[in-house]
Amino acid sequence: MTLDTEHSWSPPVRQPAKPSSGGDGSTPGPVRRNAPGLALAGIGLGLAEGVHALLPAVPMLTAAVVLGVVAAHLPGVRPFVRGRGRAGLSTAGKRLMRAGIVLLGLKLSVGDVLGLGWATVAMVFGVVLVAFFGIWWLGRKLGLPGDQPLLIATGYSICGASAISAVSGALGKEDDDERLAADVATSVALVTLCGTLAIAVLPLLHHPLGLDTVQFGRWVGAGVHDVGQVVATAQTAGPTALGEAVLVKLIRVAMLAPLVAGVAVAYGRRARGAAGDRPQADGHRPAVVPLFLIGFLAMTALRSTGLLPAGVLDAAATAQELLLAAALFGLGTAVHLPTLARSGARTAVLGLASWVVIAAASYGGVLLTT
Question: pTM higher than 0.85, yes or no?
Answer without folding.
Answer: no
